Every structure is written in C-alpha cells, then in structure tokens.
Amino acid sequence: MGLRKVGIVVLQLTVLLIVLFLILGSVLGQPILLGYVETDSMSPTLEPGDGFIAVPVQIDSSVSTGDVIVFRAEELQGGGLTTHRVVDDTERGFITKGDANPFTDQSDEEPPVKRAQIVATAFQVNGHVVVIPSLGTAVEGIQSILSTVQRQLAILLDLSALAGTRGLAYLLFAGTVLWYVVGEWRAKHGKERGTGPRHVAGDGRRQPTRDGGVRSDTRRGGDGGDGRARGHPGV
Description:
Layout: H1 3-28, E1 33-36, E2 51-56, E3 68-73, E4 80-89, E5 94-97, E6 118-122, E7 124-125, E8 128-129, E9 131-132, H2 135-157, H3 164-193
Helix pairs in contact: 1-3, 2-3
C-alpha cells in the first residue's frame, strides 16, 4: 500500500470517527471527545469557532483549579452547556470564569458549579488547552448545508426520522459511510484495471495489445519447428 493510499485511508477513518463523536454528542446532549466554543468569552485561549478535545468525566473525573470545563449552567445565557475555566474550588462548588471576562460567573447569577453539572474537561498539555482551530466554524458550515439537504429529503420522502438533530446525525453518518465505501470501490477497481495482461514479444519486450487481447509473437524455429518463443523463455 502506497503512502498516498495510507494517507487517504487515515483521512477517511478520521472523518468517520469525528462524525461518530458528533453523533454520540448529539444523542447524549454533551460533547464526546470533541467540542467547540461559539463566543469569545474564552479568548485568547479559544477564539469563536475553535475546537478542543473534550475528555468526558466518565473517563477522567478529576477537576482542579486551572482546568477548562464544560458544564451545564443554570443561569448563564439561559442555561445550557458552557465552557469556562475553574478559578477556585470552594465547599459550595467550583468558581468559573471565561478567560476574557472581567468577573467570575458566580459574580452574576450563576451558583457555584457542582461536580454533577460537569460533563467534560478540555485536554491540556503543560497547562495549555490543545486547540483545533476553526473546527466549530467548519462543523457549523457543514451542518448548514446538511440541514438544507435534510429538510428537502424529509419533505420528498415524507420521513419524520430525518427531522431534527438526530436526523441530521443519521444523514451525516450515512454520507460519510457512502463516501468511504465509494472510495474503497474506486481504489480497488482502478487497481484491477491497472493489472491487465501483458505479453512478451519475440525480442523479450512486454507489449500489451491495443484491445486488451493476446498478441502472439512466437515464431517457429527453423531447425525443428518446436514453436518456442525466441528471447526470454518461460513467460
């Protein structure tokens, strides 16, 4: 397998895994190994649209000051998932703050964050969040296109299963699997077409026929008519 083929396979598997993680996150209502931010509250660590590796608490439940966590807020922006940094650990819970915000979340109306509210932590190396630039921007762009296709298919096929977020996940998964299968078929088909029969001419050179058939370059020997090809025997 050539280097280019290996690269294509790795890319296809990576995309497939990303799709699976997004599907699981959609179904479970929390990021699974990948997440991204939509606002600038975590700037400059995470700019709007930047992604990160989200480690679920089921894998690593340890949380300490300095960690960037994804938690279910009670009051921030009407509730929902929020990605902010832990700046203090108190008896009542964790104190959180966006890196770009001048005040903590608890200075407003958000109560201290309990462990049960935390769904994931951002993976860090040497105290720095591993950032995937523009992951969220790309995902939102793809989702916008797929949402249009999703609505049209749901209307055309009259399938309620294609509606909503889960239907979008099904469509994204099906498209990725189809892309992978077609890519594998094309690679295999192209390899088979490139291995057609070649035949040895009388002077030992391989000469394929124009129509893919067999060209006979054997010549009868003048000393006994044994029919052996001159040049390299045994081909």
